[in-house]
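User: Design a sequence. Structure:
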């Protein structure tokens, strides 16, 4: 995957160390756990990681203290209707709260970079992708209007279904129109 130019998302320092041990460059890695110890943020930053996720003001403040000038992306809550494992209410902030947090990230000296969502594991409802991306686009426009912030990334956080679980799924190709239009 690294040789093909893939990016990687890690949730812990051991995962980070493993990915780095395979020769993945730090600029290809994000620290995607929304609840991180401050020492782990610093550890990742010291190893060259500059892209971090958050979903609360407390998490933003930790990142700002030990990872100055880092790029940050806000994880929004998505209910995950239609997924075999919705993961609803597990991670993420309310989409309306995201605007305030994105603006706050800029005030803290961080670089607001994007938005993340997870539609639920084994998400089979194609419409959920369209609904989530539409909400993300609204947030992009709102922070641009209100604070002249130009976000650059969407992290779709997984959810694409794989065959062999509880029930049949559509091919991955069926999802392309939902995420590329």
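Assistant: Done.
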């Amino acid at each position: 995957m690294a040789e093909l130019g893939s990016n990687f998302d890690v949730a812990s320092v051991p995962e980070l160390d493993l990915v780095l041990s395979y020769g993945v460059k730090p600029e290809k890695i994000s620290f995607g756990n929304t609840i991180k110890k401050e020492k782990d943020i610093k550890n990742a930053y010291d190893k060259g990681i500059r892209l971090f996720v958050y979903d609360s003001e407390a998490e933003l403040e930790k990142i700002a203290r030990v990872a100055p000038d880092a790029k940050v992306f806000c994880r929004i809550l998505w209910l995950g209707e239609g997924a075999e494992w919705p993961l609803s209410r597990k991670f993420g902030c309310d989409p309306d709260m995201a605007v305030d947090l994105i603006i706050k990230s800029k005030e803290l000296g961080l670089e607001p970079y994007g938005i993340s969502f997870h539609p639920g594991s084994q998400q089979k409802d194609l419409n959920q992708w369209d609904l989530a991306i539409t909400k993300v686009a609204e947030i992009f426009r709102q922070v641009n209007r209100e604070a002249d912030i130009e976000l650059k990334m969407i992290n779709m956080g997984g959810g694409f279904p794989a065959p062999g679980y509880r029930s049949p799924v559509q091919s991955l190709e069926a999802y392309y129109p939902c995420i590329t239009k």
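The longest helix spans residues 126-147. DSSP finds six helices and eight strands in the chain.
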